[in-house]
Amino acid sequence: MANNEDLFKQIIAHAKEYGYIFPSSEIYDGLSAVYDYGQNGVELKNNIKQYWWKSMVQYHDNIVGLDSAIFMHPTIWKASGHVDAFNDPLIDNKDSKKRYRADVLIEDHIQKIEDKIDKEIEKARKRFNNFDEVLYRQTNTRVMQYQMQVEDIRTRFAEMMNNNDLAGLKALIEELGIACPISGTRNWTDVRQFNLMFATKLGSVADGADTIYLRPETAQGIFVNFLNIYKTGRMKLPFGIAQIGKAFRNEIVARQFIFRMREFEQMEMQFFVKPGEELKWFDYWKQTRLQWHTDLGIPAENYRFHDHEKLAHYANAASDIEFKFPFGFKELEGIHSRTDFDLSQHEQYSGKKLRYFDAESNESYVPYVVETSIGVDRMFLAVFSHAYCEETLEDGSTRTVLRLPAKLAPFKAAVLPLVKKDGLPEIGREIFDTLKKDFMVQYDEKDAIGRRYRRQDAIGTPFCITVDNQTREDGTVTVRERDTMAQYRLPVSELTGELLKKMR
Ligand code: ATP
Q1: Do both 102 and 140 map to the same domain?
Q2: Domain assignment of residue 77, yes or no
Q3: Distance (Å) from CA 28 to ligand 1 centroid
Q4: What's the pLDDT score for residue 166?
Q5: Do 238 and 381 belong to one domain?
Q6: Would you say residue 277 lies in a domain?
Q7: In whole angstroms, how large is the CA radius of gyration of the chain?
Q8: Cα 162 to chain center, whole Å?
Q9: Separation of 379 CA from ligand 1 center, angstroms?
Q10: Atom 21 (ligand 1): residue with closest C-alpha?
Q11: Which domain does 458 fall in, by range?
Q12: Is 477 helix (H, G, I), strand (E, B) or coil?
């Protein structure tokens, strides 16, 4: 059984070998934390985006879409607070010359203590019948000590982050004895703030204000179009604006494959509500978004909420949906109650009124906003890593299979003539031509049928359709299911309907 680090390496290698993800600019030795999606990756990515877009825009009559530009007026980032406050605290190890995020070093340290708690509980669970975890946490001395440590570090850490106490962060790193994983030493520089936005120059902006930024989030494009959409769409509160698009962050530490990239894609929805109703909608969106994830069939124990102790400058409530990645539970999606901060700031900086007229109360006000924000790439990694599986079959052979949810799989079916003669390829082509009108299908006639099945398992195709001699006689084919490897026969005429039914 591979340990988690090995498993993660296998997943990365599999993504490359089967045309899902390549390092960017690979023939020039790559570009740090930038990746390209290959022939299968782009299909999975598009399907994730479509699944999100449908659930947001198609299924809600009060949510509409938007595609705003990446380049925006530079004052937007002043108003949003990104120029002054979109920073991460960085620290360098003087011996390895490696750079780290100070907050991530501390969070990883906390995670290690939490792992020890989990191990103690796992051991006790195996040892005692009728094991009561709550009681054990309250009575076992070692577990209680670990829990107190975690609580103490968390409280002080949150206070330091809230107060921007960089000296305190360094002192805490030293006190906890955190060492650089590369050099193994505790020889740290001071902690400094580092702005994550990429700046570039635009030819002809007036007043010498020619520095513009690659957007670090898609949200601001929504806020600055609030009035346009409210007016032209004749929207009524509560209503939402959804957008999918690229975002760019000059991340200090970007070493976890597509988990943390410098160029990535976000799916964000800003939900505008009446002031005072935001916490009700915050709870609604927390539950609705979690449901969206579990509807894919990935078991609920892989997700958890993490309510924020340190709130961003714009929020009055915030929670992450965390996913159990191969390297532990980490943020997959954020749900934030952003108050009226963004619209008010843009009112102030632009001098334009960004108000909603409430016909019932006959008053105008700046709406409050609840945001849901998820990275397409992180969602890709969640789905892909959960789907990856190496299994030993009854006959002792092994197979690698991607158990992707059928609605996200790049190809829904593969048509495979058993042999390359007796008219079977021609029938196969005909079936392919029929099925391709409704979903993505592959046609493959190379190699022995067993090897072709393995190839489809490895890219996650849920159904293989085999054309054999019996097909010529009675018009039926063999359908083989990826996960169970169960096989059954179906008339060709029923294939589209049956497969669509199964995928739904
Ligand atoms: P983190 O704490 O992991 O840096 P964040 O809290 O800064 O994330 P948000 O600003 O809330 O993230 O962005 C919303 C979502 O965008 C995240 O939940 C994540 O899915 C995605 N995301 C953010 N940064 C990156 C990145 N560098 N690479 C890939 N996805 C990202």
Answers
A1: yes
A2: no
A3: 27
A4: 94
A5: yes
A6: yes
A7: 26
A8: 26
A9: 11
A10: 375
A11: 411-503
A12: strand
